[in-house]
Write a structure and sequence with these properties.
Helix content is 15%, strand content 37%. The relative contact order is 0.21. The chain is α+β, with helices and mostly antiparallel strands and 127 residues long. It is globular and about 45 Å long. β1 and β2 form a beta hairpin. Bound molecules: (1S,3S,4S)-1,3,4-triphospho-MYO-inositol (I3S). The site of (1S,3S,4S)-1,3,4-triphospho-MYO-inositol has 6 residues, from loops.
Amino acid sequence: SSPDSDGCTPELEKAGLLNKTKIAEGGRKLRKNWSPSWVVLVGNSLVFFKDPKSQTPSSWKPGNSRPESSVDLRGAQLNWAKDLSSKKNVFKLRTVTGNEFLLQSEIDSMIREWYNTIKNVIDRLVR
Ligand code: I3S
């Protein structure tokens, strides 16, 4: 049987390296500070890790390193954000609590995959 045959471990949906900056906390605007972040989509959460060097998609498992922060995707809003940055391929994720993040990749296909995957999770949670 699979390691998670009891269904108690949330499913790892996607992991990868994106550029990230938080731009608002509880609705209050923050100064941008872009940095690379190891981003993991697991269950209903997007989880951010600081040290991408020690991480690879195949070796990452929930619980084996401490996240920097995490975002509950229930009720979140996702939008492309051309007007919010001079960088290409930027989208904005806004949580119900008013935290806002910009996520970016130089690789077009990668940012599109992330956008679609996060969108699917958000849509799945409202149904
Ligand atoms: O939206 P902004 O203010 O043009 O964002 C830029 C600044 O945050 C800048 O840092 P300083 O606050 O030290 O000027 C960053 O280095 C830039 O990356 C930000 O703009 P982009 O267009 O890269 O998101």
